Amino acid sequence: MTDTLQDLIASAAALIVGLAAGWAVHSAFARRKRAREQRFFGLPDGSECVMVTHRDSTSAHWSIPRHDALALLGLASVVENCGAHAEVAPHDTGLQGFGARTEFCVGDPTAHRRLAAHMANLLPGVAVHAGDDSGTDRGMFTIAGTHYRPDPGAVEHVLLARLTAGDDSRPVFLAAGQRPVTHRAAVRHLVRNRARLARKYGAQGSFCVLLKVVNSQAYGPDLVEVVADVTKPATTSVGPRAAAKAAAKDD
Questions:
Q1: Among the listed residues 29, 188, 40, the one whose alpha carbon sits nearest the alpha carbon of residue 102
Q2: Considering its fold, how many domains does the chain have in total?
Q3: Residue 75: which of 111, 113, 49, 95 has the closest Cα?
Q4: Is 211 contained in some domain?
Q5: Which range marks the domain in which residue 104 is found?
Q6: Organism's domain of life (predicted)?
Q7: Residue 37 resides in a domain
Q8: pTM of the predicted protein model
Q9: pLDDT per residue as tens digits for the range 135-147
Q10: What is the pLDDT of residues 156-196, one digit of tens each?
Q11: What gap in Å lies between CA 158 and CA 214, rounded to an integer?
Q12: 21, 160, 199, 241: which has the highest count of C-beta atoms within 10 A?
């Protein structure tokens, strides 16, 4: 066997070993990344989750608003990547309490019963205004005495939250916005920033973030700004004195 042939064999063997080592490292990294996502979303292999939405009020038939439907599609890809299975359920269907399986609750809290119930129980520091007879200030959020009014097509807000009832319970994710386009924006923010959110709040931590969607009339759900982390005020009950002060400020 010539020296040249030996060198070729050695080079080929080194290349094969290098490729195998690289594949093993890549596979290990992919498995760890998937495991982190499964912990963050509470979606182990073969688990079940539910996506809860409400129907389009402008339609005579039961249908989901377009932006809400696209938001659910974005969540469906996450569920599939985690090896879990999803069920889509209407907001007014009797569902079990939360914690047994991961839940994604997407919609307008003034019309979405399940979402409104979650916010009342888990985000007692957030007031959502139904608006007056003319619809003025419908969907306005009040958090820690500050009002966040919607300006349709220009500035709209949405709350993105991950909440749990206890250490062993599965999380409920809320995307509660002032218009359907904001729900889609919140889900996009969640999916795109899931690794950063997990690092900041922990794989099993709770959080509530207020987002602002800017100029949705021109940019749709693409231009999103983080207004504030409102976890503490949103999850803290508002006392009678603070509630009265906020109401007086609103007047």
A1: 40
A2: 1
A3: 49
A4: yes
A5: 42-248
A6: Bacteria
A7: no
A8: 0.81
A9: 677 889 999 999 9
A10: 999 999 998 766 789 999 999 998 899 999 999 999 999 99
A11: 11
A12: 160
